[in-house]
Structures are given as C-alpha cells and as structure tokens.
C-alpha cells in the first residue's frame, strides 16, 4: 500500500509545477531530521523543554523520511532491475530464434539425407548410368508442367533424355543449356508416353492433363484393367526405357459404342514436390 502511494508520488513529481515545491519540502524535512539526529547524539540525557518538544514533533517526520528514502531506493533499484530483465529477455529471444533455426536446418538435412538414400538405393538397382540433379525452378502454369534442373550440357545432358526418381517416371529433357536443363513433366498437356498395364499388358498412350494428372488414350475396350493397376513404360517410341513406373489407374470409363476406354492415372511421383531427380544418360 505504501509502495503504491510512493510510486504515485514519484510519478506526480514529474510535473514541472510541483517539482520545486516538493524539493523545498524535502530540504525542510531533511534539516529538521538533522536537528533531531543532533539531539539524539547528545551525551547529556537531560533535554530542555524546547528540545523535548522538537523531539516529539520531529520523530514522526524522521520516520516518514526514512520510509520515503527506502521506498525511493526500492523504486530506483527496481527500475534498473526491470531494464536488465528486459535486456535479458531480448537476448534469450534472440538465442531461441537461433536455436530454432539450427533445429530447422538439422531437420531439413535429415529429410534430404533420407531422400538421397532412397535415390542411392534406386541407382544401385538400375543398370544404366544415372545423373543426380536438383530442381532449381518451376514454371508457374496450369497448362504446362516444366521444371529446371541444375545439370546441363557440361554434365552430358542432351535433349530427349528421360528423368526419373526412385518412385517412378517424371518426364524428359526438352531444352539444354550449359549448366541447366528444362524438363517437361508427364502431366504436361504436350507429353505422351507409350505405356502398359503391368498386370495384363494392355497398352495405351499416357498423356498429360490439367491439375497434375494423366489419362490413357487408345486403350482397347476389350482389354482388362482395374482401378489400382500399375502403368509402366512400354519402351516403344525410343524415348523412355521400358519398365519405368508411371502411376496407378484411378478411374476406368468404358464407352458403350466406342472402340477405346478412358483411363485416368495418378502419377507415382508427386510432381509438385520434386526436389531431386535422376537423368538417365
């Protein structure tokens, strides 16, 4: 209660109009307090009437001054404590941000190591030279699906080479520069891949569709196919090697009078989240 009153007094003292009056009052009280101290230090225990009256009057004043000085001291040291605490909090927040950034980097490195391990395992099982590349750009379009990789002519990349991941087929190289190349994904509207249903060997042509999906054209009406069947490259056309996984059949639509049935394919690779790929040399 007394501290709250003291704080209020300390704040009100900031007003210019009250500052001088307050200083005068404090000086007067200090003089009176010194007088009381002088009286208390006298060796003679016999006080005069005037001294006794002054002692009675100034004793409460001395208590108020002592309490006020203690309160002001607490406010002063409390202010510096809050300043130091604020600095310490800012330092701790900065350190926490640094630690979180390091944790994010470690987590990203762990995820990258997991992907590279899968790619390495895939490369060891593949009997053809594979060139590891990273995706460095994407073309923002709903109609074209093209990525740019950080491998080019100096690495032996040429037009028409197939691009894969450990999950399956991604696309083929369509432009080559000295240190980079553009790759058209299988979901691009211009893409076409000769394919087989792995289970029944029924054949058709996988073409790109909007929204990152694919469909199969020219698949005979009498061929057996089911949702969940896996589509692979047939090797016809000389563009893609045989046996690469394209995706799974997600929809089968048969026409009552047509010669072909329409198949929808979900690509085996999430084409919107590719980070590392292999170029088949």
What keywords describe this structure?
single chain; alpha+beta; six-stranded antiparallel beta barrel; disordered N terminus
Secondary structure elements and their pairing?
Blueprint: H1 2-12, H2 16-40, H3 49-125, E1 130-138, E2 146-149, E3 162-165, E4 168-176, E5 181-185, E6 192-197, E7 203-208, E8 214-220, E9 230-233, E10 245-254, E11 260-267, E12 276-280
Antiparallel strand pairs: 1-2, 1-12, 2-5, 3-4, 3-12, 4-5, 6-7, 6-9, 7-8, 8-11, 9-10, 10-11
How would you characterize the overall build of this protein?
This protein starts with a helix and ends with a strand. It is α+β, with helices and mostly antiparallel strands and 281 residues long. Helix 1 (2-12) crosses helix 3 (49-125) and helix 2 (16-40) crosses helix 3 (49-125). Mean pLDDT is 78; it is low at 1-14. The protein has helices at 2-12, 16-40, 49-125, and strands spanning 130-138, 146-149, 162-165, 168-176, 181-185, 192-197, 203-208, 214-220, 230-233, 245-254, 260-267, 276-280.
Provide a short characterization of the protein structure.
The protein has helices at residues 2-12, 16-40, 49-125, and strands spanning 130-138, 146-149, 162-165, 168-176, 181-185, 192-197, 203-208, 214-220, 230-233, 245-254, 260-267, 276-280. By secondary structure, it is an alpha+beta fold. The protein has a six-stranded antiparallel beta barrel.
Quaternary structure classification: single chain
What are the secondary-structure elements, in order, as H or E?
HHHEEEEEEEEEEEE
Percent of residues in helices comes to 40-55%
Enumerate the spans where pLDDT stays under 50 for 5 or more consecutive residues: 1-14
In spatial order, strands of the major sheet run: 1-2-5-4-3-12
Largest sheet: 6 strands, antiparallel, barrel
Question: Number of helical runs?
Answer: 3
Tell me the span between the first and last alpha carbons.
Answer: 84 Å
Kindly provide the radius of gyration, computed on alpha-carbon positions and rounded to a whole number of angstroms: 43 Å
Strand percent estimate: 25-35%
Average the pLDDT over all residues and give the rounded result.
78
Silhouette: elongated
Q: How many β strands by DSSP?
A: 12
Q: Based on helices, strands and strand pairing, what is the structural class?
A: alpha+beta
């Amino acid at each position: 209660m007394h501290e709250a009153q003291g704080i209020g007094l300390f704040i009100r003292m900031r007003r210019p109009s009250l500052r001088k009056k307050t200083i005068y009052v404090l000086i007067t009280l200090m003089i009176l307090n010194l007088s009381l101290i002088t009286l208390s230090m006298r060796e003679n225990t016999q006080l005069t009437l005037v001294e006794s009256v002054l002692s009675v009057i100034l004793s409460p004043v001395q208590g108020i001054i002592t309490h006020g000085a203690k309160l002001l001291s607490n406010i002063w040291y409390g202010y510096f404590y809050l300043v130091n605490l604020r600095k310490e909090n800012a330092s701790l927040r900065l350190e926490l941000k640094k630690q979180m950034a390091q944790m994010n980097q470690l987590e990203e490195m762990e995820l990258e190591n997991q992907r590279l391990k899968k790619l390495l395992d895939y490369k060891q099982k593949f009997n053809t030279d594979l060139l590891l590349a990273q995706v460095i750009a994407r073309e923002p379009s709903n109609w074209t699906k093209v990525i740019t990789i950080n491998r080019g002519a100096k690495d032996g990349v040429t037009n028409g080479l197939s691009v894969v991941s450990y999950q399956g087929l991604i696309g083929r190289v369509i432009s080559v520069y000295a240190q980079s190349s553009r790759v058209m994904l299988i979901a691009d509207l211009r893409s076409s891949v000769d394919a087989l249903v792995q289970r029944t060997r029924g054949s058709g042509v996988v073409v790109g569709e909007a929204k990152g999906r694919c469909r199969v054209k020219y698949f005979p009406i009498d061929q057996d196919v089911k949702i969940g069947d896996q589509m692979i490259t047939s090797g016809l056309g000389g563009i893609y090697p045989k046996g690469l996984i394209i995706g799974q059949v997600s929809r089968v639509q048969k026409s009552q009078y047509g010669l072909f049935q329409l198949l929808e394919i979900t690509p085996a690779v999430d084409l919107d989240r590719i980070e590392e790929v292999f170029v088949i040399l």
